[in-house]
Amino acid sequence: MGITIITDSLNDLTEELLKVVDCKIIPLNVIFPGDDKIYLDGVDITADEIYERVEKSKTLPHTAAITPSNFIQYFKDELDKGNQVFYTGTGSGISSTFQNAIIAKEELDPENKLIALTDSKTLSTGIGLLLLKARKAINEGNDLFKVKEIVDSYVDKLSVKFCIDILDYLYKGGRCGALSYLFGKVLHIHPLIKVEDNKLKVAEKPRGKYEKAMDLQIEEFKKDLKYIDMDYVFITHSGPKDCKDYQYIYDRIKDYIPEGHLFVTRAKATVSCHCGPRTIGILYIKNK
Question: Which of 15, 83, 120, 278 is least surrounded by Cβ atoms within 10 Å, i.e. has the fewest?
Answer without folding.
Answer: 15
